[in-house]
Amino acid sequence: MDRALSVAALLDPTHQVVPFHGRESELRTLLRWRDSSAPQASLLLHGAAGAGKTRLLRHFGEEHWDDAAHGRLLLVDDADRLPWQDVFLLLQETLRGGPERTRVLLAARTTGWWWSSTRQRIADFDHEVTDLPLPGTLDDRAESFTLACQHFAKQLMVTAPDEPPPNIADETVLDLHMAALTVVHGDPCDVNRTQLVRQLLQRDDGRGTGRVAEDYLAVATPDTPDPDLLARAAERWPQLRAKLDELITGDPEVVHDMARDSLRIAAETGSVATLETIARKVFRDERFATDALGSILTRRLLDRATDTLDRAEMYGMLSARTMVCGLRQESVDASLAEVGCYRELAEQDPENRPLLADALGDLALRLINAGRMGEVLEVSEEAIELWREISQTDPESIPQLASALEQISYRYQALGRDEDATSAISHATLLFQELAKTYPALFRADFARVAAVMAHRFQFEGNRQHAADSMQLSIANWRVVAREDPRFEPELARNLVAAGTMFVDLGRAGAADEALKEAVDLFRHLAVAHPGTFGRDLADALGRRSQALLDLANDVDAALTAREAVMLWRETGDRKGLVTALLTVAKVVGDVDAAVEAVAVQRELTEEDRVRHQAGLVIALTALVDQQLLRDRDEEALRTADECLELCERLPHQLVEYFGTTLAPPLQNTARALSDADHHVRAVRMSAFSVEVCAALRTKTAPTVYLSALQRYVCRLRAAERREEARNTAHTAVVLWHLSGVEPNVDYADLVTIYGMLCAETKFQTAQALRLTHQAAEILREAGEPVKLRFALETAAELSSS
């Protein structure tokens, strides 16, 4: 037989010797999915080997998709064979430029935990995720069989037979096509799948690839089969599972070379000995750290737990592994089972209560990871109450109580319960302070750490003085820790950098420079003692110090320090750090070429990993716009701004939320620069997006952050002569301020004054605006803000005359 007409070639779904037919119901479902309103959507087409997934995938892409009409389509065949990292890179294509609508159509033989893991991760790309099971065979078997006979006969240049299809058990489209090919060859059409394969092997050696190779393996059973092929064949031919067990247990090293999907099959269907052999290899292999395989193995090993304590420990391991590989809901279920086991043990013996408290703390983390925030506090508060009870009779458990209080403070903050967050972290700080006095060698570092957390909490609340004092206390303790144990010098240096950064934000340039200079000196010393280890830390500290020097109006030293940071980042080869340093040079020195280079390097990073670096490209582009405007290169600035805005509008919600705290400030600054240059349309668009960013951060930041963004947006609207819209937005901001419960302060007075000015300009509710403006004037008078007070009084006079 000619090789082009071999069994493998005739049955290969990619050649489509038999034209696509049937699947009307599945196509209707796919067309509805294609035309749905969701801008981003993914669907998994899954079915048994030989069901026709590849044929349907290709047909849909070729016959039912038009990029111009429907957007972008990404086809991923054999998705269960790909590691998550590869799927992740493919999905980044959905974030690239082009049509807004994107569809990702995946195909796989199995679902199970690998798909649950992938599905939950794909949802992070703002995709609506569904799946579609594909039946093994077609509705009209007789028509399909006849069509296959006709086309195989045409390829082999023989007369097409005319007989009904056999009734094959657990039939797939491939089985029906094998039966058709058998009949065309003139052989008796047996209903036994094994006999069909044997008859076809008599016509051809069958040693092809894909499905035919799996069937050949099932019937011929060579002595040294390919382990991946054997595992995949074992799904369709259960009699091969014993041979798969024998292969893996006989040569455990074969596990290192097997594909992920093959190992999952072996883990799901293999014997206990096979399971243990794979586990010994996989649990130590970093390649599988984020794969569902480790979770599948642990789930099956759970069946071997002999008592409640063993089950609790196994559920704990299962919970940790499922969380790491993206099985978020499954990790919660495992953690709940772990807590249940420890509750049982605690009831039997109160000495087990610490184990229960630890398990509750882990459960809270799993709930956070799964986005089930409503349940987090209940679990965390139960853990704290348990630690309180334990600490009353066992003072050695006080550190655990302090840690639990610290953790719940973060959770209160995430849920917007700021008062509870402050109370919890304050209590934790006091406990660690007492522990540090009693056991300084053990707990001084912990106290230094939580004192810094307390400082950030004060900063969040707008209490600048207490924030600075708490941070100074933290640094003082870190100095003692490092003096007593030089191994903590790197930790001291890094905390000095964090302190200096906070002092810059607090407007304390002198204190910032002092802390950052000390950090730079420490890192220089460490870099000499440990070449190549602390270069990045030193470069980062230099870059941050240059900003503090700029605030001190020490332009010369600021420029020299910023350029040294660039030089060091070049030496380390860290492109992300280099971008940050170049942007600092652009800001400190006013170097547009540095901004251009930063954008170029950031583009390279973004092309390699769009998810992690796309927000960085937005920031780099805003810096370039600023520098171009400063040099009156307005046409270039507008082109750069347009690119930046287009990129902003394509950012998925998860990236906006994750990178929001770094995105908002440069967007707001650039919006102001565009407005000052009379480029109001782009200024308003950029300011509007910064409001969206701050809205996404409302549960993570103080309410005033969002209100401040609204106020800036009002200013951009007014500059664009959109006064009524500006007035209405300002009114909304004033109402939201009252609803937020934040005490009126200088920022509130600014907002009210702006609202009053807009009411005067549009002749709208001037009496009410006048009352608010008088209130703003009193706030500004008490705060000692003469310039702002003058503006408020002028606005009041304008309202009085309206």
What's the story with the biggest beta sheet?
Answer: 4 strands, parallel
Query: Which range does the strand content fall in?
Result: under 5%
Question: Which class best fits the helix and strand makeup?
Answer: mainly alpha
CATH superfamily annotation of the domain at 23-133: P-loop containing nucleotide triphosphate hydrolases
Shape: globular
Strand order of the largest sheet: 2-3-1-4
CATH topology label of the domain at 23-133: Rossmann fold
Please report the distance between the alpha carbons of the first and last residues. Answer: 98 Å
Can you describe what's shown?
The protein contains 38 helices and four strands. It is mostly helical and 802 residues long. Among the domains are: 23-133, Rossmann fold; 722-802, no CATH class. The radius of gyration is 33 Å and the shape is globular.
Topology at a glance:
Blueprint: H1 7-11, H2 24-34, E1 40-46, H3 53-63, H4 67-70, E2 72-76, H5 84-91, E3 102-108, H6 112-122, E4 128-133, H7 141-156, H8 173-184, H9 193-203, H10 210-220, H11 227-236, H12 241-250, H13 260-269, H14 272-282, H15 293-301, H16 308-324, H17 328-348, H18 353-369, H19 373-393, H20 398-414, H21 418-438, H22 440-460, H23 464-484, H24 489-505, H25 509-529, H26 535-551, H27 555-572, H28 575-589, H29 592-608, H30 610-630, H31 634-650, H32 653-676, H33 680-696, H34 703-719, H35 723-740, H36 746-762, H37 766-783, H38 786-801
Parallel strand pairs: 1-3, 1-4, 2-3
